[in-house]
Amino acid sequence: MIRDSAFGIDLPPQLVFHDRLVTALASVGQGTAAPAGAKAGVLHVQHRPDAPLPFDHRPVTKVQADQSVLMIVGPDAEAQAQAFSSDHGVDAAGFAIYPGAAEDPDSLITAAAEALKESLRQGGRLIKAPPKVEPTLPRFSFDGAAPSIRYQPKFELKQGRPIGVELLVRFGDGNGGELPFDESMTRGLDPAVLDRVTCATLEGALAECRAWAAAGIQPLSLAINVSLAQFAEGRLTAMLDRLLRHHASGAWPIVLEITETEPPGDLEQLLPHLHDARALGLELSLDDLGSGYANLELLARLPLDEVKIDRSYINPPYVTEGWEDGLRNLVGFAQGAGLRVVAEGVETARQKEALVRIGCDCCQGYFVSPPLEADALKSWVLTGGGARL
Questions:
Q1: To bridge 342 with a disulfide, which of 131, 146, 168, 308 should be the other Cys (CB 3.0-4.6 Å)?
Q2: Model confidence over 168-197: pLDDT tens digits?
Q3: The whole model's pTM is what?
Q4: Torsion over CA of 132, 136, 139 and 140, rounded to 10 degrees?
Q5: Matching CATH number, 2-128, of 3.20.20.70, 3.40.50.720, 1.10.260.40, 3.30.70.270
Q6: Would you say 123 and 116 are in contact if contact means Cβ atoms under 8 Å apart?
């Protein structure tokens, strides 16, 4: 575990590393808290498990017994990476630079890991990740047609029952198939288009709720992904206000899961609109804590009801000593702030049992259930969905 100085608690090292990387990328991108011309990079090295590497004070986390990931910041980041990888304890190294090789923390870490693989193939010399080339994607256009929805259950651990679903949106690909409405579609979209998709999805889900209620299903919360940019002008909140009045949906709580894949804007300007959303009875959740730009600063500053811990901390590639204690501290910290804590990506009974020991509130993932169509979800709940977990 590593003590986070800002919050004074011991946390999983992967989370602290990610949090500091988010801060570094934001400072480099905005020209603040970093020297002129500064760059930030991720160096992924393979080394002897017992090698006394000169980590100095760089943020670092182990991903395997013989692999570590470091963050390097400064105008000479590339030279620092070269010098470090020349140390006698390093067998191979991959380096990814920002800006250039990637535009977000997770992609930067992935690019460095891919460069390490190439380094191993080439005998161990430092390999730098190539500049990122954005793929040309079809421009998404929304014609108002109802999207296809899958529902992934959220399971309450203490009571042992489903308490909600996450709405996963799909759109036709033009060839008879479906594509997830994910970052590849949403990046760069006008927030007004995202608002319309959000409301159309909730309209469809609320229509299904009437059928579920008629079948005897108790109300479940409906969670949907949104971005902070959608709150910038108060338009989304106004649209949701009209939707709630039309459907009188208070029995089926709506949770807006804030998913940040890009640096957030001016939080001070957004906060009044977030409070307005909560005043309507909507709940706010910070999605994927420890992924993208969802970090501890957002956890501390946003008016939240819930936080979802990213799957990479529930099922890390390398479990360090104290992993469970670090996760317990994170859960306790969030619960101490009055938040409900949901663990994402739970795939095994062992993970679920660890979350019960830790005192986590809820979990979600294929161990509970894969995403289901509306009729399948109705059958799953009516036949005691999750009762045997």
A1: 308
A2: 998 876 677 777 777 667 777 788 888 999
A3: 0.85
A4: -60
A5: 3.30.70.270
A6: no
302-360: pLDDT as tens digits: 999 999 998 888 876 556 667 788 888 889 989 999 999 999 999 999 999 999 999 99
Per the CB < 8 A criterion, the answer to whether 130 and 124 are in contact is no
Q: Residue 370, preceding bond cis, omega within 30 degrees?
A: no
Total count of residues recorded for the chain = 389
Query: Strand pairing partners for 285?
Result: 257, 306
| Domains of the chain by residue range | 2-128, 148-382
Tens of pLDDT, residue by residue over 49-91, are: 877 666 665 677 877 888 889 999 888 889 989 988 887 678 9
E runs forming strands in the chain: 2-4, 9-11, 39-47, 60-64, 67-74, 90-98, 127-128, 148-156, 161-172, 178-180, 221-226, 254-258, 283-289, 306-309, 340-343, 362-363
How many Cα atoms sit within 13 Å of 23 on the Cβ side? 15
Query: Who has greater pLDDT, 105 or 56?
Result: 105
**The pair of three-digit structure tokens given for residue 84, joined into one six-digit string:** 């470090």
Which residues are within 8 A (CB) of 155 and not within 5 positions of it... i.e. 6 or more apart? Answer: 161, 162, 163, 362, 363, 364, 368, 386, 389
As to burial, measured by CB atoms within 10 angstroms (0-12 exposed, 13-18 middle, 19+ buried), residue 28 is buried
